[in-house]
Every structure is written in structure tokens, then in C-alpha cells.
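Fold it.
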Amino acid sequence: KKMTFDTEEYGDGQPRLTKFRLNFDLLEEEAADPPEGKVVEIDKRLPTESRPLRELSSTAEPFLFTRGRCDIDPLLNKLAIEGETVWSTEYAVKKNIELARPSHDAWGIRKLVFVFCDDFMYRYYRLPLWKEWLDVFMPILETLDLHPSRVARCLLASMPPRTVIPVHHDSGYWVARTHRIHCAINTNDNVVFRVGRTASSMQRFKLDAGRVVELNNQAKHYVANLDPTLFRTHLILDYADNAFPELLPPIIPVAQLCIGDRLVQTRRTVALVTERGTGPLAPHFLIIGAQKAGTTSLYEYLAQHPLIIKGKRRETHFLDWRWPSHQDFDKDKMLQQSSTQLRKRWHTTFYDVENHATHPTLMAGDSTPSYLLASHLAIPRLKAMDFHGPMIVMLRNPVARALSHYAMIVDTNCTPAQRKTRGTEWLNASPAEIANAELQFLVRKGLLKPIKTQQTVPKLSDTYDLDPSKLQSVLADLPNSHGSHSLLLRGLYALQLRPWLQAFGSERFLVLKCEDMARNPRGVVDRAQRHIGLREHPLDSIEPHNTRPNKPPYDPAFIAALQAFYAPFDRDLAQLLHWQQVSSSSTTSMW
């Protein structure tokens, strides 16, 4: 006999949004049996709606597969014995651990959690009930030929009558690296489960009790319990794919939780309350330069990662302009204590102290591009604080960098604070005048030595040797409060890099090209994420930052002279970093 329904459009407690509207017409759609099969890793790398079908494997459709059938009577009996209280907060507090699933909680879906992991799979959490209930889960695990240690997430979910889980696909690092298993425990004929590559291509499938299915949760899926009185209970289980052994215990740590433990969560992180304040102090990584080489864009791209939170300012300048004076510290205390005080000052002055204390896996960076040049200040100060974090260097064609540097300084569209930090020394001079004046200064200081020239006045078109031993003397004469200096010097990258590599070792550094990031921002940012210890997260936006559309015109002869000047120094850089060598007359092929 066909059941009749009332005409109410929404279930009790569900949002009054179109995607949550009860659609009883879906009950007229015939439910297909999911074919036998398994989701392969290649089909889960990206949301299926973003990929044409030709990019998926020949077995990708229909994105839902039967993995077998199992005896669910032990699980049904356990639920009957425990009763309805298993879904209550009181039960979680007394016999398990409270854990949030924000979206599903808001939609009214009840839950009983046994195993969980953070979205980036840094740790598995086995809740107290896992051991107690493991025996009743074994028929399902045996159907999958799955050892319990591989389970990354396991929970029972209970959909109230007249409840909708709207069309969506799961997101997060874990999705592409795990298999999503679904098994109905208590169900009814008025449950609609639809899956498809896109929202418009979804079809209804039969998920009868005891059928163990695997869902490609990168595909669009939708569940509705349209029954007016019956709950629908199902098991959700995720386990890591064999292609990612690094995401399995014992490589991945496992926390065995006890009753009374408390967790603190963000959308992507999970931590124990008792871990408050145990994380390292910010900043956790540095972007040290070069100025006008894409450091702002890289910082903003990295900040899109869910595990990175921005500090109070992008450029802290703690290691140069804002280094505390000695009188700020107790001179009678040991050096180690003073170093600790300095590190805490950096952390508390420029970063979100409360967030980092509560969520110790969150990271923050300092992107101050003047550090690369100011090695005489930054390196000893980092060593004094015993800083062990990774560092990134962005480089750019030195000619383009110099022109962009000049354009920034003379740009009149700036705030008073920006004008103060940029300086005023270049406002009434051409870039050629500035470069030639600096060239004479560098020759006079002995850093640059002309080769085979009879000229009394140095020219950019001449050839020069470098004397690195003179760098410290040059740096000591540079201003430390504004950026109107070192138009040429900032482009001598190998000269600036060597002190850093010698001080900390090359393994601490990732050197990237601004030009590569412009061509392939996602690929470059993936490398940067891995270097600072993060698992990759896709960029939501690749819009560049801090670009300047209106640049002053430049004399082609001056540009040619700059190219000639930098050519031998670029060859030195290529040798230092094992990059492609450049020709003697141009830097183009290197950049």
C-alpha cells in the first residue's frame, strides 16, 4: 500500500533552504542495485564534477559499488540493548567522547563516533567505545578484508524522519586518500540515496540493510529519509588506500582516548584539550625575500591552507626594524632565558596567541623580504633564538625586480605609513641615476671590482668581480628604516644567499622563482606547502597580490645595461642552485 505524506515542505529543525526541501517525487524513481566493484584511487583525486568522464577510469561509474553483504544482527542487538540513549550527549560524556560534525549536527543527524581523524590525517583518535563495540563491527570489516588498525573514521549516523542531507561532495585532504564505506543498519523504503558525477546526473540506488557499499565521495551524493516516523541508521567507515602507506599506523600516530578526555576542534583540526600550549611558538616558517619577487602572493596563497592562520601583519620586521633593545630584558638572567624571552616577544607581539595555544597544529609565517639582504642582522638573531623552522626564498629576474622596486618607491598612491617605510630618497631621481650612484658606492666599498676597464667612472655595462668579504661592510652602511636603497644589490642573489646557506644548511631552504609561480601557481604552492611541513591543500584563488598595473616607462638602453650587469651574477646563482645555465648576453633563459 502506498504511504501518504503531509504537505509540509521541510523536516523539523532543518534549515529553510531550497536544498533541504522534502521532495517526495523522488520516491517514484526506481532504485538501482549498486554493481559489485571498488573505487580506484585515480577517480578520487578531484571532485568528479570538475573532471570530464574521459579523465576517469573505465570503471568510475556509477560511483557507488557493492563490496559485499554482512551479518548486521550483532550490531542491531547491541543498539537494542543500549537503547535510544546512545545518541544523547549524556551518553557521549559518560561512556565516550564528545566530538562535533558541524554540518551534520546542524542538520539534525545523530551520531555515535568510534574512530576519527583530523582532515589532514596527522593522527587517528580511537574513542573509548571502539574497543567495546569492535566485535559487532567485525562482520563488516571481514567483508572488506580490512584490519581494524586501518580504520581512520568509523561512526554510526541516525537520520530522523523527514530529514535531508543535501547534494554535496566531501572535501579535505582525507577524501582523496581513503575509501568511504557505507552500510545501512536500520532503513526503510522511503529512504532516497542518489549519486552521480554531477548534481544533474545523479540516480537513485538501493541501500538495503546489510549491503556494504563503497561510495566515491568526490562524486555528488544526496540522502533523504522521507519516512514520517522511522529513523534511518547507517554505518560510515573510512580507511586509507594502499597507495598511501604513510597514512597508516604506526607511521601515523594513534591516540587511544579515555572517558573524560576532551577534544577541541576546528573544521579541519582535532586536538586534546590537554595539549593546549604545547605547539611551537609562531612564526613556524619564514619567507625571507627577495623584495618585489612575489613574496606577498606566496604568503597569501599559503594562507589559504586551513592549517595556516595569518599573523597581525605579514611583514613583522622583527629581525631588523623591530628588534627589541637590550634594556627590554633582564641582563642578569642567563642567555637561554633571554633567547626564550625574545622568541615569546616575536610570538605574542605579532601572532594570535589564543588560537595557537588552543589549536597547536595551526601554523603562521613571517614574510619579511628585507631579511634576505639583512643577513648581518637576521642570521645572528635567529641563531640567538634557536629558530629551527623552514625558510623560503622567492627570486625574480633581477632586472624586472629592480624596475618593480623603483616603481613601488616612486608610486604616489600610498598611505603616509607606506611612504615612511618606502622612503623618499628616490622620488626625484630616475632609475638610471639611482643605479649608477649605487654602482659607484659598491665599487668604492670594494664589493664590486671592475675588470679590464679604463673608465674612471664605473658603468653598468662594465664587467665586475665580487668580493664577498666586503658585504658586511656594505650592509653596515645601509639604512635600516626604509626601502629606498639597494636597487642593484638586492638583485645579487647568490651573494645574499650564501651567508644563509652557510649558517643554516641548504636543506632548510626552498628557493622558488616568481616567474614559475606566475606560470604555475598551484604547482609552486604545493612545493611550498610540503617544504613547511603541510599536506597539500588546493588553492581557492590564484589571483596575484601586490601587483602594480601602472608602471613608469623605462629607457631600453638602461634595461639592456642592467641585463649585461646581472648576466655574470646570474650564472653564479645558477651554479649555486644547480639551475639551468644562462647565456653570457642575457638572463632571459634562466627566468
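The radius of gyration is 30 Å.
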